[in-house]
Design brief:
The chain has helices at residues 10-19, 51-61, 71-75, 78-84, 98-101, 103-112, 126-132, 159-171, 238-257, 290-294, 302-310, 389-400, 416-419; strands at residues 2-7, 27-32, 42-43, 65-68, 88-90, 120-123, 140-144, 153-156, 182-186, 191-200, 204-206, 211-212, 215-217, 221-224, 229-232, 263-273, 276-283, 325-332, 358-362, 365-368, 371-374, 378-386. By secondary structure, it is of the alpha+beta class.
Amino acid sequence: MKLLILGAGGREHALVWKCAQSRTVQKLYCAPGSEAISAHAECVAIDPADPMAVTGFCVEKGIDLVIVGPARPLASGVADYLRKAGVRVFGPGQAAARLESSKAFAKQFLVRHCIPTARGHIYRTANEAVAALDKMKAPIVIKADGLAGGKGVCVCPDRAEAAETIEDFMRMKTLQSAGDTVVIEEYLEGRELTAMALCDGKNFKLLPYARDHRHLLDGDKGPDTDGMGAYAPVDLDADAGSAIQDIFSATLAGMHKDGLDFRGLLYIGLMLTASGPKVLEYNSRFGDPEAQAVLPLLDCDLVALALACAEGRLAPAEIKLHTGACVCVVMASENYPRAPMIGRPVTGIEDISRSSDILVFHAGTGRKDGRWATTGGRVLGITARGPDLAAARRWAYEHVARICFDGMLFRRDIANEALTPR
């Protein structure tokens, strides 16, 4: 099999690492990939969000399966072009991917299909949105409609900040067209959870639950980021697990009823409230850094599973997992997430243990003068798999301590809440 993975970040590094283990893969490509990814795959200088370029490459090279990493290629219709050309793809078409690419579409979908979520409304003008704040109880959640690189959701502690956020999104265009429309929601109390499932259009198989740490600083303080670390699995009681199964079933049934075919990875961000799990958001691809904490737990062939999803034949057999737990700690550049400093030498990567239980996933690195250097906001994901969560966390931080670059940022409390008695 010839396999192409789209993307270049830490999530894609983890996908490439996992897929390279498949005995079915004869040739592995990644577009555009990275210097770290090139250790496992041939990197191709193609824009992953350019449907014609991606499809042309696949036809030329005889690609058997494409796995899409980021959201933007899905939003641009890459999967649709590939399917029309007869190329199998793990990822939904543009219409189904609107679950992620449009918060307004997702909110309407949730309400239409009676799926538990926060109460909210859609506003297409700034005046209407600001006027609606008078009827809202703080905190207030403001969501930009379109893809915004993790910067499109703001939990505002009071009306003044909510009005300022609307001004930024809708009038100042800080997120460009992504903020033309906003969704304003009630604030939900509880603990967040990431639930991801492989889907073949009708059936789904849940992966281990994960928990992301989105804020920059310990104790969930500081600005919101794309994710500073994650751990898996997260233990839930039977009632919560059953409710989450129902949410996935209702989502796929709703997709089918609306004439949409979702084949790929369905990510549901949930809030575990006192009245049960409620949907915060949908994503149409693996989470980042959740993928880095979940993929090492899979004791099965991810390529075979992705191919089964693409062909609409996901088997009922359970996904086989390694025992234990996994923790990923993200190391970020100085001044992340606003204007991260790049070009700084990174040392210590060569000192990391080379084993299946200690992994380094590169998110924003490149080679400079023969050595690794920072090229983005999130730089590395140090991932450890252990016999239990405490061991995985300890090993992850032991190896984080071996990495050094000027101004590096990382949280010191990843997975703490799961190990602290409540």
